[in-house]
Amino acid sequence: MAVRLRLRIPLRAFDTSLGKLGLDYLDLYVLHWPVPSTFEATAASYRAAEKLLAEGRVRAIGVCNHNPAHLRALTEQTEVVPAVNQVELNPYFVQPEVRQADAGYGIVTQSWSPLGGVNVYWDGGRNKAKNPLDYPTVGEIAARYGKTPAQVILRWHLEHGLSTIPKSVKAHRIAENFDIFDFTLTDGEVASIDAVDTGVRGGPDPDGARHSSYSDS
Ligand SMILES: NC(=O)c1ccc[n+]([C@@H]2O[C@H](COP(=O)([O-])OP(=O)(O)OC[C@H]3O[C@@H](n4cnc5c(N)ncnc54)[C@H](OP(=O)(O)O)[C@@H]3O)[C@@H](O)[C@H]2O)c1
Fold this sequence. Notes:
Layout: H1 2-21, E1 29-31, H2 39-54, E2 61-64, H3 68-77, E3 84-88, H4 96-105, E4 108-112, H5 117-120, H6 136-145, H7 149-159, E5 163-164, H8 171-178, H9 187-194
Parallel strand pairs: 1-2, 2-3, 3-4, 4-5
The structure holds NADP nicotinamide-adenine-dinucleotide phosphate.
């Protein structure tokens, strides 16, 4: 019963999402969080994603917020290596261990809050010291290339081979965030942005994630 439920719930959620989007298939379908306290629930949801992949309803599957231990557990319990691991990653939190683990599995690391959004949402951007867009080194590099700080940070992600998903509700910023393919950063510039790293995440720690809707009964 529990096994069937664990497959049925994520499959029903997928149908709901696809219906809302009005699409026949998705290019990429990712699990939002691992559940370290009951990792079997994570593996079960991922198996549902594997089923969707086998049926052609998604083109690729992946995970979010998986640290190296989660990736090890997942790959031991499932068949398809995730295409993507989407994690908090910006100049203030550069996730070297996760990137190394992802690379070892051939997984693309995808940066959420790539501009550091998670650091500024809570205080409306008032604490400038927590906003990578306000970091002087980033501003200096931006002025050098006639680009904006956001463009420099997004280019920094690309120089590291990261996939990145900046979010904006403003059309002109969405266009700005795409316009990063006409310049490159030097190794020294990349290193100077790497140096911004604090090792402190802005969002929740994936090891603390809990699941409320699964039951083992
Ligand atoms: N998998 C996960 O667990 C997870 C967790 C968090 C977020 N995400 C996803 O990651 C994506 C991005 O993350 P995020 O929204 O947290 O952070 P973000 O993209 O780093 O930052 C978004 C913030 O930056 C501003 N912004 C965007 N472009 C800008 C530009 N060119 N210049 C100046 N400011 C700019 C936005 O304001 P305006 O909108 O006003 O332009 C918004 O306040 C979202 O799609 C989100 O759903 C995933």
